[in-house]
Design a protein that fits this description.
Layout (H helix, E strand, L loop, with lengths): L2 H23 L13 E8 L4 E5 L2 E5 L5 E2 L9 E10 L3 E10 L2 E4 L3 E2 L19 H4 L10 E9 L5 E9 L2 E4 L4 E4 L2 E9 L14 E5 L8 H9 L4 E5 H6 L10 H16 L3 E5 L9 E2 L14 E2 L2 H4 L39 E5 L4 H17 L8 E6 L15 H12 L4 E6 L7 H9 L4 E5 L1 E2 L3 E6 L2 E10 H4 L10 E5 L11 H10 L24 H7 L6 E5 L22 H15 L5 H15 L6 H9 E4 L11
Parallel strand pairs: 3-8, 14-15, 14-16, 16-19, 20-21, 20-22, 22-26, 26-27
Antiparallel strand pairs: 1-13, 2-3, 4-5, 5-10, 6-13, 7-12, 9-10, 11-12, 17-18, 23-24, 24-25, 27-28
Helix pairs in contact: 8-13, 13-14
């Protein structure tokens, strides 16, 4: 053999070995996808002329084609249009160019109204303010006609996808000259390179992994068998097996990151879609987000639990999404009044649910409930009932001229979406919101249950219109043990602060006393001690509702302060509480279930999360980012809504 031929053959052999090695590694983080030649996608948008509505000496702008409004507090309230495009996972966007036509300047006689602060507690008081940096700058705002964001995650068909979300700003505002500029047409050319070899797992071995606290493994075997019998191929894995590297080499700085890397490897090797965490916040440790919205204020919350961390595996280019890009041990860090310090993707790549069990008896209860629900619910009349509860969540004085009963507005909108369900309204305005009526209606069985009001880790309550000093019908954790709907379990959505705060623990009494001393128990109005935040209870309201022998089969709610828009700031005649923040996310869950026929719980919930990232500026508005980070699914993510026929 000639020397040149020998070198050539050896070179080919080395390349083959390298290729095989990279395939076996199953890691899309280690190497960038090989991309194809450049392609260009052209998108054109056409806009109607803007119209103006004057209220209290300020203008609001309407554009027919707008999908939302820029809702960043303090900025001018301007209409936007968002559009998301899907590309094969790992696609690289190499260039974006734009052309516009038909620009028009309109001189205004009044300022554009600034976006109000959302409500993050009972009352915010100062809800509207101007960002002086913007309102005193002599240039058009926003700076450009469009912006875009690249993310990676599952689409509605559960396929890993690169998403290009474009936000168009058809109206821009110069606050110093008090004029707006609009345009008729905007054309965008997107140049991109698709991967020649898109993401492909080594096999389709499992649909779900169940990651559990070690002591619970044997109790979960009947659930694994049940899931396998219904075509949800499931693998049970203990935390010890993750730490020991039983299936994949252990990597990561702590058990949370080791678990996330395990989930990533399971996605790439087994092609999993669902992840069930079984254990409370300490047994299967949570990750805290350090996104701040009110440091030093009445509603200060400097960190909160977020299981979205475990679902958000990848960035748009397929690299590992650590949630700690500055590597300082603080995750999803976004200090109050400062730029964010960690870049997070926020679009789920797997669907994660948690059974927040703190004992073996709770594990057994949940295994029995899930099996019973999926085997017996289909075809039952009780499932076709939908029970909602709400009242007047916020004072009229803060709505800016309207007087909506926010809890009734958002639950009523949910009933409109779920029109084939028999509606059961437990509303303050109907005079039937009592503990007894809540108990009686749940005990008859219902497919869905939706509370919208105020909450804490121990209770849910609301107000009568005009009375914001007295709570109406606190429904507390001890009330759940009296429910008699065994075998007729609803899926629960709760709108309220901290109802799903899974990291409560009696140890917090000691921490509170050390930090606040006797002020911990203060009952001074406006200066309550932290004892009354009820973070010292053993388990939170939402989980107690799920683990009860009656109660719910799963719940979705917030680990932190809720977030609501109130009034009708954009003057479209629709309550803002249904169009933004918590209300939008809750209603999107029902839209996906009833209008898109997405009937697996984790997929329905997390596609609502994905939709939120594509409709709201989660990368620039800390309140939008917090909405989806605080919400948590407590239940089986692979649950078949309505059971198997």
């Amino acid at each position: 053999m000639k020397k040149k031929e020998f070198i050539l053959l050896n070179t080919i052999l080395v390349i083959v070995i390298m290729v095989i090695g990279s395939i076996q590694a199953g890691s899309i983080q280690a190497q960038k996808p090989i991309v194809s030649i450049s392609q260009t996608k052209t998108i054109s948008f056409h806009f109607s002329p803007p119209s103006l509505t004057e209220d209290k000496g300020m203008f609001t702008i309407q554009i027919n084609e707008a999908t939302e409004y820029r809702n960043i507090p303090g900025e001018p309230l301007l209409p936007i249009l968002t559009k998301t495009f899907e590309f094969p996972f790992g696609t690289q966007i190499t260039n974006i160019q734009w052309t516009s036509s038909g620009t028009h300047d309109i001189q205004l006689t009044q300022k554009i109204v600034p976006t109000a602060l959302p409500q993050t507690g009972l009352t915010q008081h100062q809800t509207q303010f101007e960002n002086t940096e913007i309102y005193t700058t002599n240039q058009l705002f926003p700076d450009t006609w469009y912006s875009y964001r690249l993310t990676g995650g599952l689409n509605k068909n559960n396929i890993l996808t690169t998403f290009l979300t474009i936000q168009l700003n058809p109206v821009r505002y110069n606050p110093v000259e008090n004029r707006i500029r609009s345009l008729d047409t905007l054309t965008i050319d997107v140049t991109y390179e698709q991967p020649i070899h898109p993401f492909a797992p080594l096999n389709d071995a499992y649909d779900m992994v169940i990651i559990c606290f070690d002591n619970y493994a044997s109790l979960l075997e009947p659930l694994v068998a049940h899931k396998n019998s219904h075509g949800i191929d499931s693998k049970l894995v203990t935390l010890k097996e993750i730490k020991d590297g039983t299936y994949f080499p252990a990597e990561g700085r702590d058990i949370q990151e080791q678990t996330k890397y395990f989930i990533k490897n399971a996605k790439e090797t087994w092609n999993i879609t669902y992840v069930m965490l079984v254990g409370n916040f300490a047994q299967v440790p949570i990750r805290y987000s350090y996104l701040e919205t009110d440091k030093g204020g009445k509603y200060e919350e400097l960190r909160y639990a977020s299981d979205l961390y475990y679902a958000d595996l990848y960035t748009a280019n397929g690299s590992f999404c650590s949630w700690d890009t500055d590597n300082d041990g603080l995750y999803a860090e976004w200090p109050d009044s400062h730029p964010k310090q960690d870049t997070v993707d926020l679009v789920p790549d797997v669907y994660v649910g948690r059974l927040a069990c703190m004992s073996k008896s709770e594990v057994k209860t949940m295994v029995d409930k899930i099996i019973t629900y999926e085997n017996t619910t289909a075809g039952k009349d009780w499932f076709n009932r939908m029970v909602v509860a709400g009242g007047d969540t916020y004072p009229k004085s803060e709505e800016g001229g309207t007087d909506y009963n926010e809890g009734e507005a958002v639950t009523g909108a949910a009933l409109d979406i779920m029109s084939q369900f028999t509606p059961v309204k437990i509303w303050m305005s109907l005079g039937n919101l009592t503990k007894k009526s809540i108990h009686d209606q749940i005990s008859e069985g219902c497919g869905f249950l939706f509370f919208a009001g105020h909450g804490s880790p121990v209770s849910w309550a609301t107000h009568n219109n005009g009375d914001y000093q007295n709570w109406s019908e606190n429904f507390i954790t001890k009330d759940m043990v009296e429910l008699t709907n065994k075998g007729m379990y609803p899926i629960l959505l709760v709108g309220g602060c901290h109802n799903s705060e899974i990291d409560v623990t009696p140890i917090n009494i000691i921490k509170g006393l050390l930090e606040e001393k006797l002020h911990y128990f203060s009952t001074t109005p406006g200066d309550f001690g932290s004892f009354w935040s009820y973070t010292w209870i053993p388990e939170c309201w939402s989980w107690v509702f799920v683990k009860a022998r009656g109660g719910a089969i799963a719940s979705m709610g917030s680990c932190g302060y809720g977030c609501d828009e109130i009034g009708d700031g954009n003057h479209d005649g629709i309550p803002d509480c249904t169009q933004n923040y918590d209300g939008w996310l809750e209603l999107e869950f029902f839209r996906l279930y009833n209008q898109h026929n997405i009937t697996f719980l984790g997929q329905t919930y997390y596609q609502a999360v994905a939709g939120y990232t594509q409709n709201f500026p989660v990368n620039t508005n800390r309140y939008d980012a917090k909405v989806i980070q605080t919400h948590i699914l407590l239940g089986d993510p692979s649950l078949k809504i309505g059971g198997y026929e």
